[in-house]
Design goal:
The chain has about 150 residues and is mainly α. The chain has seven helices and no strands. α1 runs parallel beside α4 and α6 packs antiparallel against α7. The longest helix is centred in the last third of the chain and has 20 residues. The N and C termini lie far apart (about 50 Å).
C-alpha cells in the first residue's frame, strides 16, 4: 500500500491547483481552509505535539501548505478574496522560506493594508527584498482598481 506524508499530500494539492477549473467560490473556500490549517499548525501547542511525534515534521508541513497557497493564488485570481487574518499573528515564527511564501501570497491580494507588514517582515530577512513584494502588491492593487472601475 502506498503511503504519503502530510507534506506530500499538500504538494499534491499544489500540483492540482495548477490545472483545476473550479469556481472562484470553491477556490476561495479551499484557500481560506488552507489558511486556517496553516494557522492551526503554527499554534505553539500544535508545534509542541508535532515535536513529540518523531514522524511528523511541522515545519515541512507548513512549508508545503504555504507552497499550495502560493500556487493557488498564482494560478487563480482569488488572493483578494482570501482571509489571511488567522495566519498573520504567526508570521513572526516563520523562517525565511515560509515568510517568503506568505509575502508572495499577500502581494497577490493587491490589498494595500499589507504594505507595512510586508515591509516589516521582509526586513527581518536580508534575503527578502521588500521592494519586490511591494511592487507586486501595488501592481495587483492597480489591476483591481482598474477592473473595479471597468464594469465589463
Amino acid at each position: 500500500m502506498l503511503k504519503i506524508t502530510i507534506d506530500q499530500m499538500y504538494d499534491y494539492l499544489s500540483d492540482l491547483f495548477e490545472s483545476v477549473a473550479w469556481s472562484d467560490s470553491t477556490l476561495t473556500e479551499i484557500g481560506n481552509s488552507l489558511i486556517a490549517q496553516i494557522a492551526f499548525e503554527c499554534r505553539p501547542e500544535t508545534v509542541r505535539r508535532a515535536k513529540e511525534n518523531q514522524t511528523y515534521d511541522s515545519r515541512r508541513v507548513i512549508e508545503a501548505m504555504l507552497n499550495a497557497l502560493v500556487t493557488l493564488v498564482s494560478c487563480h485570481d482569488v488572493a483578494h478574496r482570501l482571509n489571511f487574518v488567522p495566519v498573520l499573528p504567526h508570521i513572526e515564527t516563520f523562517d525565511c522560506s515560509a515568510a517568503e511564501q506568505l509575502l508572495t501570497a499577500l502581494a497577490c491580494t493587491g490589498d494595500l493594508q499589507y504594505e507595512a507588514l510586508i515591509g516589516q517582515t521582509a526586513g527581518w530577512f536580508p534575503a527578502l527584498l521588500a521592494d519586490e513584494y511591494l511592487t507586486e502588491l501595488r501592481k495587483y492593487a492597480a489591476y483591481r482598481q482598474s477592473h473595479a472601475a471597468d464594469p465589463q
